[in-house]
Amino acid sequence: MIKMATRIGTLEDIPDDFGPNYLKCELSLRKKQKAKAFVSGCYLEKLSITLEHGEKVHLRGEIYPSQRKLENRHVVDVDISPLNKCIVDAYCSCKQGQSGTCSHTLAVVSAIEQWKIAGYKEVPALLSSTSIPQQWDKPRGPKVKAEPASYMIFASPTNIGRKRKPIMAQFTDNRKVKLMNDHIQDLQLLTSSPISYLVEEIDENTPTVETPLGNQVVGSGLAYHAPLMQLVHAVRNETGCGNLSLPVDRALNEEIHVLLQQYAQHWQDLGLSSDESRELERSTRLQASSKNWFSERQKRVTASNFGAVMNRKKDINDAFMKNTFFRSQFVSKATTYGHINERTAKITYINKTGTHLHDVGLIVNSKFPFLGASPDAIVCENGKVGLVEVKCPYSARNLSLDEILNGNVPNFFLKKVGGSVALEKKHSYFFQVQGQLLVSGLQFCDFVVYINDNIYIERIEPDESIMNSLLRKLCIFYCEHFKAYSQNQSKK
């Protein structure tokens, strides 16, 4: 492992009272409104935190331009001094960014503040709609989803008691009604009415409300037509995130412990301490965009291939090794479909469950470093941490789950078990999930299947007997086949 002067930081490295007040300057109303729009509109991406020599926290994020998202994103850099509780330096690549107080910089600061209030320990990758500021004042995006004609219900319009209400056009007349003098006189007679203040003479006894623009009369448009990103002093939520430092230690039975000690000399070159394995996971969270992720995976048997080894009946040969572990990258309709729809599946998942997700890198357990796992995400649910594995099967893209289970997709990995649906226990995906739980040490994995704009979610918990079988077979496989073949491939 390469030792760096800096390390990847977390939200826990930032003071709890962090917010726009750290900028130590007056911020205009316009900047506050634009910053709020950037945060609520999810314009902020790729936010990273770096702790430099334990004295300074560096933030870097990218924000889409407010005009056209096709333009180059603005890069924001912010340096925080936790000791002095201030921002010591800030810069943005926009035209006003040299001052360090542009709306993009304020958006980064405000986003961090929101996550601290929510109790998050690390920067979330995706948030559920309930975790993002309200969007009711914007046009609705999702449209009425298409469905097969066989699902449509035809009924008489006079049938009010139908189970499924039809889609009906609605009209609201918003034309201004002229207010007559006699109406005002009638209102003035209602001295005890809650709305009588609307026609009263304004004096020192007129009720007012404090606003960013000073005290305004209750009911005035100025009292509520200027939404701002105010300084928040809410109590921090302590259950937003659980322990995101992976892997978590998992106890092994005596038989497996003896087996690992017996073969330990075969993976001495892969040996990692607990701290080094956690640092490896943090440094590879970009996964396919990280060179280190590729290089470290090539040295290990990874969870996506556990099933191929476990289900192998024939002898291990060069063709199997090459096609399973060292084949060149390829693009097909199925892989493209899965890549495009994975993010959509995650968004559907978090909106359905009300949770939030974090990116995750290559997980390697120091007890058996010859294995690795790269789940699709980490989920935080009421302080508990689990894995998420997403599948977007191309063969089922235009079918419903019922049609799939009725046999329209041969050898599909979901089966009916009694009155419920479950992942096939002998399928390679099941070994993949159990392997991810084994390596990570976490207590559950949500297996998410994206089918025709809908998702199926199955919570899978660790199966100790399966995990022991994985360790037995994969330990011998690595020592007798994988290590030598991998070393020969690296020399070519």
From TrEMBL:
Keyword annotations: Metal-binding, Zinc, Zinc-finger
Pfam family membership, one: YqaJ
Alphabetized InterPro entries for the sequence: PDDEXK-like_dom_sf (IPR011604), Restrct_endonuc-II-like (IPR011335), YqaJ_viral_recombinase (IPR019080), Znf_SWIM (IPR007527)
Keyword rRNA processing on entry: no
Record domain SWIM-type: where: 76-113
GO molecular function ontology, one term from the record: zinc ion binding
GO BP annotations, alphabetical order: DNA repair
Keyword Signal attributed: no
Alphabetical list of PANTHER family matching this protein: ATP-DEPENDENT DNA HELICASE (PTHR47526), PHD-TYPE DOMAIN-CONTAINING PROTEIN (PTHR47526:SF3)
Protein name from the UniProt record: SWIM-type domain-containing protein
Species whose genome carries this gene: Dreissena polymorpha (Zebra mussel)
